[in-house]
Give the backbone structure.
Amino acid sequence: MPLKKFRKFTAMALAGAGSLALGACASIPGANVAPGAPITAEEAQLGAQYHDQFVAEFGGEMTGPYARYVEQVGSNIAVQSGLATRPDAFDVTLLNSSVNNAFAVPGGYVYATRQLVNLMNNEAELAAVLGHEVGHVAARHSARRQQNAQRNQLLGLLGAVIGGAVLGSSDLANLSLQGSQLATLSYSRSQELEADQLGIQYLNRAGYDPNAMASLLASLAAQNQLDAQLQGRGDATIPEWASTHPDPASRVQNARQLAQGGTGIVNRDTFLTRIDGMIYGDDPEQGVIEGRQFIHPELRMSFTAPQGFYMINGTRAVTINGDQGRSQMTLGPYSGDLNSYVRNVFTALGGEQQQVTPSNIERTTVNGLPAAYGTARVNNGQQQVDVTVFAYEFGPSTAYHFASITPAGQAGTFNSLYQSMRRISASEAASIVPRRIDVVTAGRGDSIRTLAGRMAYDTGQEARFRVLNGLSANDQIVPGREYKLVVRAN
């Protein structure tokens, strides 16, 4: 959550997403283009128009050797699609995001997060992910989803183009995520399978091992399961609203069948060399999650999620999720009046569709911070829910707030969250350093235990090490082979 970007996108959210919407009668670029046909000028214009906003929304664009490597692999695999004849016709971007994600938009714009790249173990897997996303573009999936969105009066282009990545939206519909809003949050299963199939075709054409699609999906499924265990969730599947793509575990076997035992290059050593040293997990400039605690060194704040809840750190919001409710921490324009600030947040949450007004606004102090809060009961289309806004003044022109939604009568679910907000000291802020990938060569005396013991975590070291390196429960260390560790940056 970089401060400047955080302010910019919160303001955009409070103002509404009108600039990203298409009218009901607007033509949709790509909707009438045959799958596999070259990129049209209209599609290229659309991608260019929204590229900067997409990049900023997902942590910003990484530059340097890591980014150039991802761009090279992505452009080369994208050419196999027939959408364009030159690699430079595609814009491949490495995003500074700690969420495992990748997506593509019309016009040859392809994106992958550094966290997803760090999960990979060879170049073929990188090509597989990027090829999968190019497959969505080639099949014009986003245009067809946008057509469905118009039919359902869900006209937000951002959601329809890139699906359910964690956007940290400020509107009530996305905060509650009930009913028809889910229609735009992910590709259909048939579209995902088609993109897998196209991605494997591109791998074969480029000379990569087509089995890389299945191995990457297996690693992502294992990461989902590990995240669920570490976060205390009973299920191992990321909810639909927390991932652009449906559960990858259900697609592994299909990808193996599509590969048909094919062979090709994987470029494991090259890949590991090229990602050595890349930041892993949260970037301190965007705030970090340590267990149930969120710490932002630049904004000098910290809070703790309730037991049983887990957090996702987005560019313009931190989302706290659980079975009993959902909350988001973000900021908005502040003029020095907390009461007005809270009322403005409620107005923005309701938008043009629904008036959301708290019964009253209370003033209090939390760990020395002036605070104000209110709760409103609304109907979200399926049931009565309580919407709470709890705001804090951090300075004459700076305020942050939680916007929470819970079942009616359970607004107190997040009381411990609200009371945990505090200002951190300069020394505490300075102690937050990033984690990075460290590629090491296993020695004759190394084992899973010895290497995992070097991981920069207090819990789940062995499980994290196995998932990071694509190792099953029965795999053992091979002396002389390179492995990834996650270590604290010096």
In short: The chain is about 35% helix and 20% strand. Residues 1-30, 149-185, 238-243 have pLDDT under 50 and may be disordered. Residues 212-230 form the longest helix (19 residues).
